[in-house]
Amino acid sequence: MFADRAKIFIRSGKGGDGHVSFRRELYVPNGGPDGGDGGRGGDVIFEIDEGLNTLQDFRHKTKFAARDGEQGGKRRCHGKDAEDIILKVPEGTVIKEAESGKVIADMSGENRRQIVLKGGRGGLGNQHFATATMQIPKYAQPGQPSQELWISMELKVIADVGLVGFPNVGKSTFLSRVTNAQPKIANYHFTTLNPNLGVVDLDDAKGFVIADIPGLIEGASEGVGLGHEFLRHIERTKMMIHVVDAAGSEGRDPVDDVYKINAELEAYNAHIARRPQVIAANKTDLIYEGEEESPVDRLRAEFEPKGFKVFPISGVTGAGVSELLYYVSEKLKDMPDAPVVFEQEYFPEEELFYIDLPYTVVKEKDVYVVEGPKIEKMLGYTNLDSEKGFAFFQKFLKDTGILKDLEEAGIQEGDTVKMYGLQFDYYK
Prior knowledge:
Helices cover 20% and strands 22% of the residues. The chain is α/β, with parallel strands linked by helices.
């Protein structure tokens, strides 16, 4: 079964905690701190696998977690870093945050490998917290916590041109004639149950990739029929070939068909509906000669003034197909070579940092003590030795309301603030 959507839970590894220990050796009765640092937690990485073309692997297993980093040890021993977890996906997979639908990563184009969730950094052992005034620190930094997220994945095929039109208008027959694709063809509605891709090779002109987008009917944008399942596959295409049954062999009006399909595209995504489009008036081999106004003339009179060039073709005999393909190739010359790529909108490291965790502000003698999971998490993330890290630390105190709470507790300039192993003087 073709699977082009999946929803899974992913979790990175927690960083190993720093260790609290002191050097105790013969003849060294009062050795200093020697607690080692924790190891790094594993990342969750997505990678393109050229051999995959569906998301079937995520249908039955829906939870993926990287391992945690190892805790630091005595004698400055560093905890072991955890292995990353690598999830293989087909090219064209768009990864989104499940609740908001915002794009995290588009696995296409040059983006072959992306870290989606970073493993936690290992905490520092107590050896790092010794100072002239605190020579026996009994505090080690906790490892940076893991990150977890529900994500949705959608496979959006990568093609230059999309074939759209009602079922049974001859899209699959056309595709099999002009490419190396071998779609199943039969005289039934919804014969094509997954997107078919093919490569068009042309003499003395640039070829292109074409996709048959199945299941479009009236109401598809609202979930009627199968169209809603496959409309996403047209989102990357640069232009469309709109195939209609010019002979009206199913009793439908080809002019009306074009308007109805375009209305579905507009309802689904107005931006897609405005992309260049050419009309392939198919099944001309079934049109009886001698009609007062041929269906092709009607299509041209209706749509060419609107900028849609009409080509009479026959997918069965091949008549008119070559002219259509060379026209499309020429149009594609003026469009960017790179595939349509969706920009990142959701940044897990930033979004997941500010989740609501508690903290307390308490005055003990002349020191203001700030503690709680929120503080531990911040200290795990932040390298206060760097200018950028310290600026982030200051912004964190302000944005989370900790500075305001300290002021309400009566803190004055020059007073001492303590956060686990960190101690500093307060100045506005």
